Amino acid sequence: MKRSYENALKLLETRRRKGRPKAPASFTSQDAAKPIDTQTVRGVPSLVGMSEWLKIIGHSDSEVDGLNIVHITGTKGKGSTCAFTRSFLRTHGLRTGFPRKTGLYTSPDLQCIRERIQINDQPITEDLFTRYFFEVWERLTAPQLEPNSETIRQPRYLQLLALLAFHTFIREEVDAAIFETHHGGEYDATNVIQKPVVTGITSLGMDHVAQLGPTLESIAWHKSGIFKSGAPAFSVLQESGPAEVLRDRAIEKRTNLTFVSTNNLLPANDKNLSVPVQRLNCSLALELARTFVQLKAPDQTVDASDIADGISNFKWAGRFEVIEDGLSRWFVDGAHNTLSLKQAADWFVTNTCALETRNCRILIFSHFSEERDGVTLVECLAEALSKHGAMPDYVIFTTYEEREDGTTRIDKTLKIPETPFPDLCSVYTSLWKGVDSNAIVSNSPTIEGAITLAKEISAERSGAQILVTGSLHLVGGALNILRPQI
């Protein structure tokens, strides 16, 4: 097969499984310190095989350790915390020379797959992605592998992407690497990291309960699996139950855990800190960056200029993002669980209720998932907006399909819902009309159609404030239309 970017994407796509396994895990992983929790873990945990695959593609534990990793997990704010940490380290590196190269691995992507693997604020190029993908792929599928070896089993989609990130960062000789877990922690593929420099946990909430358990305590247990002996651990303040679990796990993992509250010394008026939860995420990231520099460059410190410039230069697409477009003002946030939807609603209300003139409000929403109840999310969002007396005048339910002509970028991850669009959207429509009979509710089979309709309404009403939320897949498609990549 020709080594091309398009072929790399096609091969990667073959590793995507059709659905999450339902059967409980039935064996013990040599990668895990304890037997697998069969009450929540289903199928083969993502961690299993990662250590062996890294060795097959030529990387030792010491090479992974040499990446100087900051490992971050949580329910809400993982991506933003990773991005703030990256921004602080990058700004510090530009001033002092260390870290010279900073890698960032996150998921999912919004506009293209290469967003998941970044170096110095930029997604890796198509050429680098292609070169390193085929290096990993060909080593993992080499015929000389022992046919009876356990490692003959091939990595799944997210495992392969994590392996590609490790390989890329090692080959590109980054001085620091920030890794976001996929979900969970204890059995997550990224937990092959044995010696992170520092670890962090963002706000915990009820999400991925089929894999992480039905309580905040069980979720806290899984997330704190990234704690490692000798690596300082930090967490934002949590509820008492999960906080106690985190403390116990820190003792078990032989590390020191520090709870972080919002840093009152952060700039008061910076637009990147206008949302309370972002101030908290930034505060956690600052502690992670400070500790990283203290441990890896003891003669240096993250100073006031690093902090100010790091916050000013922060960017994280699709999270509390505002796009001005003529008469329309788009509030774009990839909230997809109840905790984040409440925060998105508060952010939208705060920024629209302060307007001198009463502009039309429009909501564009989409959510299709096996893991989350979309009806619960719609109810949560309606309640949050209603509480502030800020119900939208128009509501548009749509899908994850991006363009009306069916085209999409070859490197854009697209999730096709199993539930037929008309069926679920009719449920959403009935639910919303039951909450607000005055709202004008419509459905669009594509994101492009929903945005076009919102623009038409905005033109008719001499301006509109438009909230786009419910899914990262929706937000990624919306950004491709509102702010297409060159």
TrEMBL record:
Residue ranges of the region described as Disordered: 13-34
InterPro entries: Folylpolyglutamate_synth, Folylpolyglutamate_synth_euk, Mur-like_cat_sf, Mur_ligase_C_dom_sf, Mur_ligase_cen
Official protein name in the record: Folylpolyglutamate synthase
Cofactor: a monovalent cation
Enzyme Commission code: 6.3.2.17
Species per Swiss-Prot/TrEMBL record: Aspergillus ellipticus CBS 707.79
Domain of life: Eukaryota
Binding site for Mg(2+): S107, E180, H208
Role according to the record: Catalyzes conversion of folates to polyglutamate derivatives allowing concentration of folate compounds in the cell and the intracellular retention of these cofactors, which are important substrates for most of the folate-dependent enzymes that are involved in one-carbon transfer reactions involved in purine, pyrimidine and amino acid synthesis.
